[in-house]
Amino acid sequence: MSDSYDRAVEAVLFAATEPLTRDAIRAHAGDGDVSGALDRLSIRYRGRGFELVERGGRWHFQTAADLAHLLRRGRDEIRRLSRAGIETLAIIAYHEPVTRAEIEAIRGVQTARGTLDVLMEAGWIRPAGRREVPGRPLMFATTPEFLSHFGLKTRRDLPGIDDLRAAGLLDPVDLAFDQLAVENAVEED
């Protein structure tokens, strides 16, 4: 039974135009052990030309990362995200759901409307309802496409402060402020 069900799940995922949740897979393949089928298929395709991966609770086949260069036909147009865009995306990812005012409070500067528009066009953020406060500001959150693009299973896979520091990705000014905060805390004790 499991072999035929695994084949049905495999066919559904192969034909899907977008990543699917377990419920969506079950809706197409019928009742069965979707989780078990996904586990067996993940093992079966591990190390092959394409792999079965989960991103944000959705499953899909993707080309193995070490072979992706073979599928590029021309020169990719590299669009760089502005510093404001990177900061805004990071704030949303680490603090979601978050309003524009909260983003601006964390960044310390106003956020241009275009910055949020660029992130939404990229499919990395989405409106996530309205905060129940006066004015009912719109909140923003990341999308499954954000997780997929950055190779994350969940937001918990985002690097922590120690990871960023070890990778040399923190601004020297940030490191100086952190050190100053530690010294001030020691003096107060």
Structural commentary:
- InterPro entries: ScpB_csome_segregation, WH-like_DNA-bd_sf, WH_DNA-bd_sf.
- This is Segregation and condensation protein B.
- With 189 residues, the chain is an alpha+beta fold.
- The chain folds into 2 domains: 2-71, Orthogonal Bundle (Arc Repressor Mutant, subunit A); 83-158, Orthogonal Bundle (Arc Repressor Mutant, subunit A).
- The chain is built from 9 helices and 5 strands; from the N terminus they run αααββαβααββααα.
- Strands 3-5-4 form a 3-stranded antiparallel sheet. A two-stranded antiparallel ribbon has the order 1-2.
- Strand 1 (50-55) and strand 2 form a beta hairpin.
- The longest helix has 17 residues, at 172-188.
- The protein is globular and about 65 Å long.
Q: Name the average pLDDT.
A: 84
CATH domain topology of the largest domain: Arc Repressor Mutant, subunit A
Shape: globular
Number of helices: 9
Distance between the termini: 66 Å
The amount of beta strand, in percent, is 5-15%
Structural class: alpha+beta
Q: Considering the protein shown, what is the CATH homologous superfamily of the largest domain?
A: Winged helix-like DNA-binding domain superfamily/Winged helix DNA-binding domain
In the predicted model, the low-confidence regions spanning at least 5 consecutive residues are none
**How many domains make up the coordinates?**
2
Question: Helix amount, in percent?
Answer: 40-55%
CATH architectural group of the largest domain? Orthogonal Bundle
Question: Which quaternary structure do these chains form?
Answer: single chain
Number of strands: 5
CATH class of the largest domain: Mainly Alpha
The biggest sheet amounts to: 3 strands, antiparallel
Order of helices and strands: HHHEEHEHHEEHHH
Strands in their spatial order, largest beta sheet: 3-5-4
